[in-house]
Amino acid sequence: MSHKKVSSKKKPSKVRSVEPSVAASSYYTDSLGFLAMDSNVPGLSNIILQKLNMKSYAEYRSAVEGNSLTTNFGIRTYAEMFQKMEDTYKFCVQCKKLPSRLPDPRAMRRCKRCQNIYYCSSECQRENWPIHKKFCRKLKVAAIDRLVEWLIFTGDIPFPTSPWTTSITNIKTWEDWFAMQESLEVKLDAIMAGRYMGILWANAGKPKPENSELRESVKRLTTDFFTRPMTIGFALNTFRVDPYGGPVTIHVVGASHIETLNIRATDYDELAKMFPGNQGLEVVMIGPEVVDGPVMRPPLTAYGPRGRVYVSGYKSLYHDFWETVVENERAARPDLVVGFHPGFHASQGLTEGWLPTLLLLRDYNIPVLFTMYSEHELKYSLQILAELDTRVLGSGQFPFCSQKLEQAQSDPNKHPVSSNAYYLFFRGAVWLDVETSMVELDED
Ligand SMILES: [Zn+2]
Ligand SMILES: [Zn+2]
Fold first, then answer.
1. How far, in Å, is the centroid of ligand 1 from the Cα of 124?
2. Ligand 2 center to residue 414 CA distance, Å?
3. pLDDT top residue among 236 and 267
4. Strand, coil or helix: what is 149?
5. DSSP 326-386
6. Count of Cβ atoms closer than 10 Å to residue 142 Cβ
7. Ligand 1 centroid distance, CA of 394 (Å)
8. What's the pLDDT tens digit per position in 44-60?
């Protein structure tokens, strides 16, 4: 279709009805979903960098890779680092008391079954058991995962992968993906026997789980690492975007510190392996919270190298990026736009954040896929997209979601969730089909 201005079809009056009534608490509505997620479900980056007083991932890596965890970071030993990470979970799940409010802070007791949650007293533990027993088993898994996640930061996870031997059309689940990996058991063994796995359990302050449990955790964290390139691959395949016919540009919209703080230039390489012989794939991270870092280089003006993934970034709201960069041909138009749990449901001033972006994506007829972390978020997002007359093409449980379980930190006695358990995809507006058929009729 022609590239008309985004506001030509719908007036703001149509849109107001979808704004939630809660007062706005932040300008960056497209980051609210991430923030909401972040405060409930801490990622390791949040814990390590904020609780450990580190300013950047580079600092963190130098601490991990260097010969010591120096006093610059206030951490002298690995044991202390894991201790500080665990401290963020230390409060009485029943009465919410913090250790500092106990006569003896060390009297805080941990549930021995799950090694995850804490109680100030045996009374609180007893009172809490009828609820906690429903979640204890899953919280045990979540507690293992939050420690093993450290192995992503040390580089042990993921194991090295090869160009795919099966078309993405035939890889429908993570089981299919693992089955395709050559020498999978050998690669998992190498991680299990790795130096950092040893350091982890020597310093975690918790008993080392059974090998079988640890192995499953390593696999879940592997899916957590690969879930973003898999999301893009899944979306390319869904929309029949052909990476063999020409170079492909993917925009990650609403990218925040979660996508960009820890990013390495190689993090999306799986995408190139998914399409061996591709003509070049560029992944551009765009969002107001994009963090400066090694891969935050400007989007390409010409196409990138064939057979490879080129990651770039741009710190801006998406519609501003479009107007100043895309419109001026300083970056390619996207063949696909992807958003990782954008959090429309938590967006309180939709008009200021996501709305111009959604209208732009709709009116330029761009293929779009979003992931969501709950059914609630999916339903609300579908409602918003329906109000905006976008043409939603499908939605459901996302087959390549991260298998890592994340617990709600403030209230752990809930089912831990995957951060991208659901997805939806849309393209264009509902009236596009009608218009097209009318044109055809006129011509007849
Ligand atoms: Zn208590
Ligand atoms: Zn428990």
1. 5
2. 12
3. 236
4. coil
5. ITTTSSPPPSEEEEES--GGG-S-TTTTHHHHHHHHHHTT--EEEEESSHHHHHHHHHHHH
6. 22
7. 46
8. 344 445 545 555 555 55
Distance of CA 316 to the CA centre of its chain: 19
The one-character DSSP state at 51 is I
Structure tokens belonging to residue 82? 């894991």
Q: Please give the radius of gyration of the chain, using alpha carbons only, rounded to the nearest integer.
A: 23
What's the pLDDT score for residue 272?
96
Distance 101 CA to ligand 1 centre (A): 10
User: How many CB atoms are located within 10 Å of the residue 112 CB?
Assistant: 9
Cβ atoms of 261 and 293 closer than 8 Å: yes
Length of the chain: 444
Helix/strand/coil percent split, the chain, to 5: 45, 10, 45
**Ligand that comes closest to the CA of residue 95:** 1
Predicted confidence (pLDDT) per residue in 392-434, tens digit? 999 999 999 999 988 887 788 988 888 899 999 999 999 876 5
Residue pair 224/152 in contact by the 8 Å Cβ criterion = yes
Alpha-carbon distances, residue 267 vs 40, 239, 299, 311, 315 (angstroms): 25, 23, 17, 9, 19
Read off the pLDDT of residues 101-160 as tens digits, 9 standing for 90 and up.
Answer: 888 878 899 999 999 999 999 999 999 999 999 999 999 999 999 999 989 888 899 999
Task: Indicate the pTM of the whole model.
Answer: 0.81
Q: What are phi and psi of 405, to 5 degrees?
A: -90, 130
For 262, phi and psi rounded to 5 degrees?
Answer: -100, 10
Measuring CA to CA, which residue among 145, 157, 23 is closest to residue 85? Answer: 145
Which H or E run includes 233? helix 211-238
What domains are there in the chain, each with its CATH number?
Answer: 12-34+226-443 (3.40.50), 41-217 (no CATH)
Q: Which amino acid is at 210?
A: E
Structure tokens at 60: 């963190």
CA torsion through residues 237, 242, 248, 253, sign: negative
Lookup: tokens for 107: 């009297």
Nearest bound ligand to the CA of residue 115? 2
